[in-house]
């Protein structure tokens, strides 16, 4: 770069943008990139670029105005309403390209649409930095500019947020907000600028300029006399770090927050995996044996265990699903059930009337309801159209899907409708074949999975973290392989968990899988073990093929309709039994499996006592074979990554 000074002082790979596949021409919703802190002439820039152009985008500069000097262009039309997810449900967050990113330098033809996501912002234009809450999933940073806009969230799949913030602290003063400890307000290393901005922190009642002067001259006496609140924000932060010196830990970045990573799990010794046999489905005759004279079900735990072990015969589902989904009480009599159904029928049609009575003029003024209606109509028109119950342009099943989903918007208006819900309703309506019954059964299902569809997606990230923890305990070599291929975050499992494998199995197998999961046995997260079972079945193919991240995603997607639900359920239960047989199973794994309550500080882990489930037999001795793939070790240790952020 002639005529200019350019020096990279920090660089970190594995920093992703999580984009919505439908809102960007690139179908891949995970855009890998490199984050850099660059000293350029007299300015310091924070620069992110996709990996394929990481060395070619240093002149794409963030600016409050576009390249013509005017205000940011608004010519590109953006949808005003889109509360859903895109068809492949690979999204983690829904960020859009910022309109105030300048165009690439002249002559630089973007090789792919991802180039539009690259940005570079002067540190002087930053107003605040928000850091994600610590957890088992990836950490991220959101940067807000002085103009009030925010850059796309930076997701650090390999750690690095703490290291980046330490580097930024050489050039900026990062102060934790009094209202939100995860929000860091940005100030320059300049006492006059700091003085003029102190009132934004609301730290002091007296004149802020006097406070700053005293604090800079004598931080200790000032702090310990009447300004003790400052210690939470500025202890050691007012002095810039000398170049080349090791940066001390920022007080606002405690070292006890690993990211991404896991609590120490030492010496997890897993025994041999038992062999599990599935039972035949529960028949209508067997169900009748559990019905008392007044229609009240008897021996309910035994009945649930039978459903878990073998599922239900098709003719029994219409009645049994109402119990599994909480529409009818397991303890209620036949008369109580009739009264309950009458009450719920009236309640349903009152809610349905709310949206049915909205005129076209009213709907035009209600963008939210109009948006829900449009999204539902679009999704219903393509939901399970190969199923005879929904095929054909004028199929009444489609009308019922539409009406039930719109009524659910009235029932749960805060959540409304999100793409994917039609996939959850379709099998229920197919089985019960009654509008009111299907609605209340769907509500029961949504009680289990509504967190999957919340905008924050905290539930989905937590489940992916729990899945990764289980997989690390079960098969560390597989996790190491996925990590080496930039797939360790298990984002390719997102759709599995979002809609409970609806797109992975043939329609009849989905019915069997869901009724087993609805029993709540053997614990609250059997669906995570189902995901582990699928990965366990595919481990040799993945590890021997030399797949990269794109090939791994392609292979997982190609498993659709090729999996046997009985094989997967058998292996999932075997994994559960293998874990629960471990006498020293870590407490956080016990919590995932429903074997323990959240642990009190200093309390020992309770003993593991698995529930009696499907019949098992002692596993046969393993046949001799050549170890071509590293097998799960019976003694492993999970430690935080060296680069913990």
Short description, anyone?
The chain is 38% helix and 12% strand. The protein has 645 residues and is of the alpha+beta class.
Secondary-structure blueprint:
Elements: E1 6-18, E2 30-40, E3 43-50, E4 119-122, E5 126-131, E6 139-145, E7 154-156, H1 161-168, E8 172-176, E9 183-188, H2 191-197, H3 208-217, H4 219-225, H5 231-234, E10 265-269, E11 275-276, H6 284-288, H7 300-310, H8 314-324, H9 334-356, H10 360-364, H11 367-380, H12 396-411, H13 421-432, H14 435-449, H15 458-474, H16 476-484, H17 494-498, H18 507-518, H19 526-545, H20 549-557, H21 565-580, H22 587-593, E12 616-617, E13 635-638
Antiparallel strand pairs: 1-2, 1-7, 2-3, 3-4, 5-6, 5-9, 6-7, 8-9, 10-13, 11-12
Helix pairs in contact: 2-3, 3-4, 9-12, 9-14, 11-12, 12-13, 12-14, 13-14, 15-16, 15-19, 19-21
Subunit structure: Interacts with OPTN; this interaction mediates TBC1D17 transient association with Rab8.
Protein name: TBC1 domain family member 17
Region (Disordered): 59-85, 596-645
């Amino acid at each position: 770069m002639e005529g200019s000074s350019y020096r990279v002082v920090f660089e970190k790979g594995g920093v992703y943008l999580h984009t919505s596949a439908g809102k960007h021409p690139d179908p891949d919703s995970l855009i890998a990139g490199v984050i850099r802190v660059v000293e350029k002439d007299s300015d310091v820039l924070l620069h992110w670029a996709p990996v394929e152009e990481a060395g070619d985008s240093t002149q794409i500069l963030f600016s409050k105005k576009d390249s013509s000097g005017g205000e940011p262009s608004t010519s590109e039309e953006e949808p005003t309403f889109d509360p859903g997810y895109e068809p492949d449900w690979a999204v983690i967050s829904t960020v859009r390209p910022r309109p105030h990113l300048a165009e690439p330098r002249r002559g630089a033809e973007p090789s792919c649409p991802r180039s539009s996501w690259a940005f570079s912002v002067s540190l002087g234009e930053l107003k605040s930095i928000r850091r994600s809450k610590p957890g088992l999933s990836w950490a991220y940073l959101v940067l807000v500019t002085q103009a009030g806009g925010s850059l796309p969230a930076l997701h650090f799949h390999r750690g690095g947020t703490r290291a980046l913030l330490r580097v930024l602290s050489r050039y900026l003063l990062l102060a934790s907000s009094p209202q939100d400890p995860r929000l860091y307000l940005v100030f320059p290393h300049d006492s006059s600028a700091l003085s003029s901005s102190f009132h934004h922190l609301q730290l002091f009642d007296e004149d802020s300029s006097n406070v700053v002067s005293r604090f800079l001259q004598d931080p200790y006496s000032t702090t310990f006399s009447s300004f003790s609140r400052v210690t939470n924000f500025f202890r050691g932060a007012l002095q810039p770090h000398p170049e080349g010196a090791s940066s001390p830990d920022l007080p606002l970045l405690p070292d006890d927050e690993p990211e991404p990573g896991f609590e120490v799990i030492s010496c997890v010794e897993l025994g041999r995996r038992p062999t599990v046999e599935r039972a035949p489905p529960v028949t209508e005759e067997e169900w009748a044996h559990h019905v008392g004279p007044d229609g009240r079900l008897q021996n309910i735990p035994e009945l649930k265990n039978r459903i878990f072990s073998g599922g239900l015969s098709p003719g029994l589902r219409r009645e049994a699903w109402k119990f599994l989904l909480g529409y009818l009480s397991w303890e209620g009599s036949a008369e109580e059930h009739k009264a309950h159904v009458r009450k719920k029928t009236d309640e349903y049609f009152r809610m349905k009337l709310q949206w049915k009575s909205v005129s076209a003029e009213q709907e035009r003024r209600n963008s939210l309801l109009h948006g829900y209606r449009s999204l539902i109509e679009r999704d219903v028109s393509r939901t399970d159209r190969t199923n005879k119950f929904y095929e054909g342009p004028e199929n009444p099943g489609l009308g019922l899907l539409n009406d039930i989903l719109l009524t659910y918007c009235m029932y749960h208006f805060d959540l409304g409708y999100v793409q994917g819900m039609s996939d959850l309703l379709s099998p229920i309506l197919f089985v019960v074949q009654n509008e009111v019954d299907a609605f209340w059964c769907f509500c029961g299902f949504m009680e289990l999975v509504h967190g999957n569809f919340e905008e924050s997606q905290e539930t989905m990230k937590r489940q992916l973290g729990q899945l990764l923890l289980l997989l690390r305990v079960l098969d560390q070599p597989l996790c190491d392989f996925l990590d080496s291929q930039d797939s360790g975050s298990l984002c390719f499992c997102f759709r599995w968990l979002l809609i409970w494998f609806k797109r992975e199995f043939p329609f009849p197998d989905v019915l069997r899988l869901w009724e087993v999961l609805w029993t709540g046995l053997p614990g609250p997260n059997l669906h995570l073990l189902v995901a582990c079972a699928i990965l366990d079945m595919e481990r040799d193919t993945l590890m021997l093929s030399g797949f990269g991240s794109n090939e791994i995603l392609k292979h997982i997607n190609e498993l659709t309709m090729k999996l046997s639900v009985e094989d997967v359920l058998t292996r999932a239960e075997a994994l559960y039994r293998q874990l629960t047989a471990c006498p020293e199973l870590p407490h956080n794994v016990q919590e995932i499996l429903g074997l323990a309550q959240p642990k009190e500080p200093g309390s020992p882990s309770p003993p593991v006592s698995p529930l009696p489930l499907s019949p098992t037999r002692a596993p046969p001795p393993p046949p001799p074979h050549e170890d071509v793939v590293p097998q799960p070790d019976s003694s492993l240790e999970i430690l935080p990554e060296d680069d913990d952020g």
